[in-house]
Automatic annotation (TrEMBL):
GO terms, molecular function: ATP binding; nucleoside diphosphate kinase activity
EC number in record: 2.7.4.6
GO biological process: CTP biosynthetic process; GTP biosynthetic process; UTP biosynthetic process
Species of provenance: Serendipita vermifera MAFF 305830
Pfam families assigned to the protein according to its UniProt record, in alphabetical order: NDK
Protein name: Nucleoside diphosphate kinase
Matching InterPro entries: NDK-like_dom (IPR034907), NDK-like_dom_sf (IPR036850), Nucleoside_diP_kinase (IPR001564), Nucleoside_diP_kinase_AS (IPR023005)
Amino acid sequence: AERSFIMIKPDGVQRNLIGKIVGRFEDRGYKIVAMKMVHATTEHLEKHYADLKGKPFFPGLIKYMASGPVCAFVIQGLDAVKTGRAMLGATNPLASAVGTIRGDYCLVTGRNICHGSDAVESAEHEIALWFPEGVIEYEDTEHAWIYEN
Ligand code: GTP
Ligand code: MG
């Protein structure tokens, strides 16, 4: 099954939105196969956002992401990457549809409370970066009620 790396950023953690955000993915039918609180180092975050190095907002982004703990987790299920991104909403919260996480809980791009992998390959890369110990495989008892087969 497809997996995506999702992260509640420091603002989402400080605003006590962990339960609500994780709950949306669980409610949709995704299985949580890894999860932890991490106060990431700037070195680690620079690896995570390596593709954005050189952007004018990069230093601010790293400072924001290192400003407190994040809640890192992995969702597993059908179309996890694309649907995970759709559930987050647009990068700019003001352009995010109401009903998406960003569209419901935040206002500005630089404090957009959550991250989601943008492609299957980046998901694999990000899962390996944040969960070098691997994810947990376990039987999903609701599987037959969420999928046709
Ligand atoms: P992530 O899920 O966090 O990767 O967001 P994204 O994929 O929607 O956007 P992108 O990867 O392009 O940018 C990563 C993060 O950098 C965004 O989520 C924002 O927090 C921040 N960011 C991107 N563009 C800007 C910008 O123009 N200004 C500021 N202040 N922050 C930005
Ligand atoms: Mg991105």
